[in-house]
Amino acid sequence: MVFELSVGAVLTAAAVAVYLHGKSDSKTTNGNGKANVDTSEMLVTYSKVIPGHEVRRVFGYVESSSVLPKGSSYSPKLAEDATIHKLMAKAKEMGANAILDLKLEKEEFAVHVRIIAKGLAVKV
User: Fold this and answer.
1) For residue 51, what is the domain's CATH number?
2) Is the dihedral of CA 19, 71, 84, 52 positive or negative?
3) pLDDT in tens, 42-73
4) Please, is 98 exposed, middle or buried when counting C-beta atoms within 10 Å of its C-beta (0-12, 13-18, 19+)?
5) CB–CB of 95/42 below 8 Å?
6) What phi and psi, each to the nearest 5 degrees, are found at residue 61?
7) pTM, to two decimals
8) Rounded to an integer, what distance in angstroms lies between the CA atom of residue 104 and that of residue 9?
């Protein structure tokens, strides 16, 4: 069982590393590796409001996650960035241009760490 989890965690971390390495701008890739979402105009904040902006539409909560093997050479900061970028892409696909009340969580398991990002997708 531990071996299966370790291999899965390593493969997931490798996928995150390939994703981050291939990301040269603010566009995300779909399952086929084609760029389809530009998140350069997305506002993201830990706050529940953005000064100077009025929320015009609320789309709902979005969530994304990434898995990083424990003891790996991959940076936890890169995994957090990838998780937030995936969150931004999901919000953008819903029609949002901002994410409010961003929350980052880490769940530590025996062989990997799961990073979770949650936020409220809105149009300002």
Assistant:
1) 3.30.110.70
2) negative
3) 899 999 998 889 999 999 999 999 999 988 88
4) buried
5) no
6) -80, 145
7) 0.68
8) 20
